[in-house]
Design a protein that fits this description.
Oligomer: single chain
Strand order of the largest sheet: 1-2-3-4-5-6-7-8-9-10-11-12-13-14-15-16
Structural class: mainly beta
Strand content: over 45%
Shape: globular
CATH architecture: Beta Barrel
Number of strands: 16
Largest sheet: 16 strands, antiparallel, barrel
Length: 410
């Protein structure tokens, strides 16, 4: 595999700006998300699904242990339950509900981070979520569909997917910045996280399963929320996705890809502020169903004078399936389309500092990238409850932002 090329091309996403604290702080957070969604037509079947997620997190930070070093630790668990709108009703391949997953408790994160030099460079190790720091959305974070949280080209890879919510795993991440506006990050993660039985957690690593290497460079300044370029590569060997049709084809280790994001403030029209984002990515068609992905979003805020934080957005996620995947689908008697497209209209209203409502409408063209399956229309309503409390254990200049826990919006 072209690991050397991947390592040279990668570098990172921004470390969110955080101020170093004097002393120590402890924070406890809890969040509950409920998602009611109905497939009104098309897909596999008409019907309603309710899914929910409970998140519990505890973080601690201090600068008292080592001079000039900020130490942060985080522990988070999640409980997932409810019905599967994609798996049971729509049959889409990208995921229209970003909290849909098999039911049960999971260890989400358990890590320790050391930050050096006023937190400009940091090293994090433990059970991690790759998408908490790589390929993260800004403008696209408004939407409920999974591809708006992490591109389908990346989220579909690996034996059981990459190290992302809810199946996280062991990892090591190094991050820093150059001049403030340019930030970099590199990570090495378990190449096959989780288990086939969806256990609470798994810290098993294997040389056969290898590692997922990823890095990203990001620039942000002024109206540019995020301009980033990322690259990823697996060290393990993979069988071709169409191995049943090509029995002589050997396993290979060229499972790598690129992605890029451009997120910017478009400007204003009267009281309205507009933001837009574009995201594109690639993956090798020999090992992955989706070989090209493109996402776009436009959002508007300050819709109402009395509710300046409410947001309205329109997002599009287009996933092109490669020829090997289409060949296998045709062989199995399922005529394949060239792509699946998800379009989502969402509105977010933060009613209080602990309650938010997100009504939304979704359209899925060619669910599952299959011909003969009717396009699907889905209506949904999500509500989010979240509370957090922090304790100042010793005197400090100001409350730190680092180490606070919030559930990832995927």
């Amino acid at each position: 595999m072209r690991v050397a090329w991947c390592l040279a091309a990668v570098m990172t996403l921004p470390v969110f700006a955080r101020d170093a604290a004097e002393g120590s702080a402890l924070e406890l957070g809890a969040a509950y998300t409920g998602d009611l969604r109905r497939n009104t037509t098309g897909g596999m079947s008409v019907g309603t699904a309710y899914a929910d997620a409970l998140d519990l997190g505890l973080s601690w930070s201090t600068d008292r242990l080592f001079p000039g070093t900020q130490l942060t630790s985080s522990l988070a668990v999640i409980y997932l339950g409810g019905d599967a709108i994609s798996g049971e009703r729509v049959g889409d391949l990208q995921g229209i509900n970003n909290i849909e997953a098999p039911s049960g408790w999971r260890l989400y994160e358990s890590w320790v981070q050391m930050s050096f030099g006023a937190a400009s460079t940091s090293l994090r190790a433990g059970v991690l979520d790759l998408n908490a720091e790589f390929d993260t959305p800004v403008t696209q974070g408004l939407f409920i569909g999974s591809p708006f949280g992490i591109g389908t080209d990346l989220s579909q890879t690996g034996v059981r997917g990459p190290v992302v919510w809810p199946t996280t795993g062991l990892g090591l991440r190094l991050a820093g910045s150059a001049g403030g506006a340019l930030q970099w990050r590199f990570g090495a993660y378990d190449g096959a996280p989780g288990t086939d039985d969806d256990d609470f957690t798994s810290v098993r690593v294997s040389s056969d399963e290898g590692a997922l290497l990823i890095g990203e460079l990001e620039y942000s300044a002024g109206r540019i929320h995020k301009l980033s370029l990322g690259s990823w590569a697996y060290t393990a060997r993979f069988e071709r996705i169409d191995a049943a049709l090509r029995p002589a084809a050997p396993a290979d280790d060229d499972n790598y890809g690129l992605y890029a994001t451009f997120d910017v403030a478009l400007g204003s029209a009267g009281p309205l502020d507009f933001d837009a984002a574009l995201r594109a990515g690639t993956a090798p068609a020999e090992f992955n169903a989706v070989d090209r992905y493109f996402g776009a979003a436009v959002t508007a805020t300050h819709l109402w004078e009395g509710r300046p934080d409410d947001a309205l957005g329109l997002g599009v996620a287009w996933a092109h399936v490669g020829a090997p995947y289409r060949d296998v689908s045709e062989f199995d008697g399922l005529p394949a389309a060239s792509a699946e497209t998800l379009i989502e209209l969402a509105y977010r209203a933060d009613l209080t500092d602990w309650l938010a409502l997100v009504p939304n409408l979704q359209f899925v063209a060619d669910p599952g990238a299959l011909r003969g399956v009717d396009d699907s229309w889905v209506v949904g309503l999500r509500f989010e409850l979240a509370r957090a409390h922090s304790w100042q254990l010793t005197a400090r200049r100001e409350a730190p932002a680092d180490g606070s826990y919030a559930r990832r919006n995927e």
